[in-house]
Amino acid sequence: MKTNTTATLDFAQELLGTRSPSEALELWTSHAKKQFEALTVQSKELAELSQKVATETVEPIKANASKLFKPAA
After folding, report:
1. What would the mean pLDDT of 3-11 be, rounded to a whole number?
2. Distance CA 15, CA 36 (A)
3. Can you tell me the distance from the alpha carbon of 41 to that of 64, in angstroms, rounded to the nearest whole number?
4. How far apart are the first and last CA of the chain?
5. Three-state SS annotation for the chain
6. Would you say the C-alpha torsion 30, 32, 36, 39 has a positive or negative sign?
7. pTM for this structure?
8. What is the pLDDT of residue 73?
9. How many CA atoms lie within 13 A of 36 on its CB side?
């Protein structure tokens, strides 16, 4: 969140310094591309974290279930 906020504030500051609409458009396009790339990385990290949490949550349940329901010999 801090990274995104800093990037947005930096973009706003740079945008105020533009001298022409074409310069502003170029800056806007560059910012949008960087934000999309950041979103892609953040989404991947969130998916990996979610998978890790799910795995760590299921393991104790599986261990306890295997103790309760031992297979018949």
Report:
1. 92
2. 18
3. 36
4. 54
5. CHHHHHHHHHHHHHHHCCCCHHHHHHHHHHHHHHHHHHHHHHHHHHHHHHHHHHHHHHHHHHHHHHHHCCCCC
6. positive
7. 0.66
8. 56
9. 6
